[in-house]
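User: Sequence in, structure out. Go.
Assistant: Echoing your sequence, followed by the structure tokens.
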Amino acid sequence: MTYKTKNTCSKEIRFEVDDNNIITDCEFVGGCMGNTQGVARLVIGRSVDDVISTVEGIQCGWRGTSCPDQLAQALKTYKAGRA
């Protein structure tokens, strides 16, 4: 799935989830390369729900969101599309 981010330096997040709701791939396009690569690597192998509960609500300065929070929003959108 590709998710267009809002209010972050990264412009989009691409990720894949297997049939067991485990994230198998994650890539941020744009943003702080070291941070986004780190987040992407840390979420691979974890469940969608676990990642949402871990990163949702993380703030980056005045933006009201962050790259990790946008990943949570992307995963919530993914879940809603599968319901």
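User: And one key feature?
Assistant: Residues 46 and 73 are 16 Å apart (CA to CA).
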